[in-house]
Design brief:
Elements (H helix, E strand, L loop, with lengths): L2 E7 L3 H9 L4 E7 L5 H9 L5 E3 L4 H5 L10 H8 L6 H15 L2 E8 L7 H15 L5 E5 L10 H4 L7 E3 L11 H6 L2 H10 L4 E5 L1 H14 L7 H4 L4 E8 L8 H11 L3 E6 L3 H19 L1
Parallel strand pairs: 1-4, 1-5, 2-3, 2-4, 5-6, 7-8, 8-9
Length: about 300
């Protein structure tokens, strides 16, 4: 059974909930336990999405001997049935079972804390360490982060010879998306166009997760890299862009944006976003994992 692991930034909780709860071919979903998983678990539960939880070091045991494809109870049955595969009828049945099983993917999700963005070297070190840690039981790894400054701009090159394939969030031009706002708008080119339309006026872009997390991030970091008070109170930054991705897991989205706008005396502008990039990147990673296990 193919196994796709996802290392995710908490900012992508909504998109992750959407793609996972919409996946009708999901064999099982395992979310790594921890304080950074609470939001994702709450949203998955709201979608009646079935999942299991376990500490990261217990995940391999939950999967069955910690191996990616080919592990689990089905392998015992196939060992017993192996002599029958020589018969044409049973060989056809076996191939059909194998093909069906190959398209039902198990997903393991490991959300990481928001504060890692304070130090891009630490962020890179943490994500790279997790990649190496979960590769032992994965058939592929999807990195639900963007290039995040310079942290992951060489990620594909750094893991090009890795036995476990690593996949990234990419736009329609095949580029790793610059940041989470670019991902929500539809890619780097769409982001550039949106920013160009706001030329002459400084603007901050809020997805529902950004709107709900800005206070938490500011409190955790005091002097936040992205949400420094002096930066936000600069009169050149006069707009907060409310980015509607069509997801409604946070009922306080409007209130959070309004609170932020009032706090920093900003005008609210609304634009339409999309989950298409997240959906396509997830499907591409699943397809890659299935092909990898069939080789």
């Amino acid at each position: 059974m193919p196994l796709l692991s996802i290392i995710a930034c908490r900012i992508f909780e909504d998109e992750l909930t959407h793609v996972l709860s919409s996946d009708r071919e999901l064999e099982q979903l395992i979310v790594v336990e921890g304080r950074d998983s609470f939001g994702l678990l709450r949203k998955l539960k709201s979608e009646n999405c079935l999942y299991r939880t376990a500490p990261l070091d217990r995940v391999p045991f939950l999967l069955g001997k910690g191996q990616g494809s080919g592990s689990g109870s089905g392998s015992g049955f196939m060992s017993l049935a192996k002599p029958l595969i020589k018969l044409p009828f049973f060989r056809i049945i076996h191939e059909k079972m194998k093909l069906k099983a190959a398209h039902r993917v198990t997903v393991v999700v490991n959300p990481l804390r928001l504060g890692l963005h304070d130090d891009l070297d630490l962020l890179k070190s943490e994500v790279y360490g997790k990649i190496r840690e979960i590769a032992s039981f994965s058939d592929g790894i999807l990195i639900f982060y963007c290039s995040c400054g310079e942290a992951f701009e060489n990620l594909e090159e750094d893991f090009s010879g890795f036995e476990c394939p690593v996949y990234c969030l990419k736009d329609g031009n095949g580029e790793i998306v610059a940041d989470c706002i670019s991902a929500a708008i539809g890619g780097n080119a769409a982001y550039d166009e949106t920013m160009y339309s706001c030329r002459g006026t400084g603007a901050l872009y809020f997805t529902p997760m950004w709107a709900s997390a800005w206070k938490e991030m500011a409190e955790e970091r005091k002097k936040s890299r992205n949400l420094d008070d002096s930066f936000l109170k600069d009169p050149r930054y006069s707009r907060v862009v409310k980015l509607d991705t069509g997801l409604s897991y946070d009922p306080d989205f409007n209130k959070n944006v309004q609170d932020f706008a009032r706090t920093f005396n900003m005008e609210i502008v609304e634009i339409k976003g999309s989950t298409e990039l997240a959906e396509k990147s997830y499907k591409a990673a699943k397809k890659g994992v299935i092909q990898h296990t069939l080789e």
